């Protein structure tokens, strides 16, 4: 099971880091080694670092925009089995795109860690993995 955490980042204090990190910890605590969790906050940090290095190399300030973040997030999303939607995801343009894409790709959409646990149990019983 590979889980992508989705929710509002833009316009949130500290990029909503605490909600994302809490979700990652909850999934890991409940499902342990049975799953890998993709955190878009970590993806964003990787992009920020890349742009900082580019700015240093060129001597011009380069900053990522929403599209830069979304392209990498979507790339990661295409490799998961489940997406976990955080509370308030509906207020986020990016999370809305991620949910819609997940549905179109047949990725299981969950709204809580309990949903993920139930999905895992169902998959284990049916041999879906």
Write structural notes for this entry.
The protein is α/β, with parallel strands linked by helices and 129 residues long. The chain is 57% helix and 12% strand. α4 (93-105) links the parallel β3 and β4 (108-110). α2 crosses α3 (66-77) and α3 runs parallel beside α4. The longest helix is centred in the middle third of the chain and has 19 residues, at 40-58. The chain is elongated, with a radius of gyration of 16 Å.
What order do the helices and strands come in, and which of them pair?
Layout: E1 2-6, H1 17-31, E2 36-38, H2 40-58, H3 66-77, E3 82-85, H4 93-105, E4 108-110, H5 113-126
Parallel strand pairs: 1-2, 1-3, 3-4
Helix pairs in contact: 2-3, 3-4
Index terms:
129 residues; alpha/beta; four-stranded parallel sheet; 5 helices; 4 strands; 57% helix
What is the 3D form? Answer: elongated
Specify the helix fraction band.
55-70%
Q: How can the largest sheet be summarized?
A: 4 strands, parallel
- Rg value: 16 Å
- Uncertain segments: none
Widest sheet: strand ordering: 2-1-3-4
Secondary structure tally, helices: 5
The number of E-state strands comes to 4
How much of the sequence is in beta strands? 5-15%
* Succession of helices and strands: EHEHHEHEH
Q: Look at the helices and sheets and give the structural class.
A: alpha/beta
Mean pLDDT: 89
Distance between the termini: 8 Å
